[in-house]
Amino acid sequence: MAKRSLRKTNRTVLVVVEGETEEAFLEHIKRLYYRRGTHLIVSIKNAHGHGPQGVIEKLKSVAKTADFDRRIAVLDADIPLKATEEKWLRKEKVETLISIPAIEASLLTILGRHPPNVTHACKSTLQKHAPGDPTDARYYARHFPLAVLEQARSTFPLLDALVAAVSTG
């Protein structure tokens, strides 16, 4: 009897983000870096605000209906994690990627700009350097093409971690 080859199973990654800006940015990264045939399924879910608690609630609700090999929470530091939230994330082995103070600061860093220390200043500074709607996918295609992301990956560990999450699992 001939040996049957084993079928490769897909690895699954769940990435839960705080809001629309993070979701649009992650979808852009996924479009650029994800390759079919890699046996990887990446799901990006949006907690629609509500800070770390919203992300944790979304992680819990998605876990009720699906099991993932890897779970990642993408958070802003402008709302600090409570001790109970940190404990839950560690206990559940959820990787945590944090933008300081917010995703807009990370976007400015990718563009080679020094971000301000407060979220509202980051948002207005980002609009000066990359005007447009950061919840729209076309915004990222225009301001964050592959060449810009590749240049920033080597010096910005958060970006490298986000790319790895959606491309290699």
Query: Measured on Cα atoms, how large is the radius of gyration?
Result: 17 Å
Give the H and E element order.
Answer: EHEHEHEHHHHH
Continuous helix count? 8
Roughly how many Å apart are the termini? 36 Å
- Structural shape: globular
Mean pLDDT: 93
**Helicity level, as a percent range?**
40-55%
Provide the domain count.
1
Query: Would you give the CATH topology?
Result: Rossmann fold
Tell me about the largest β-sheet: 4 strands, parallel
SS content category: alpha/beta
Strand order of the largest sheet: 2-1-3-4
Oligomer status: single chain
Low-confidence stretches: none
CATH-level-2 architecture: 3-Layer(aba) Sandwich
- For the secondary structure, the number of strands is 4
CATH class: Alpha Beta
Strand content: 15-25%
Briefly characterize the structure:
The protein is of the alpha/beta class and about 170 residues long. The chain has eight helices and four strands. Strands 2-1-3-4 form a four-stranded parallel beta sheet.
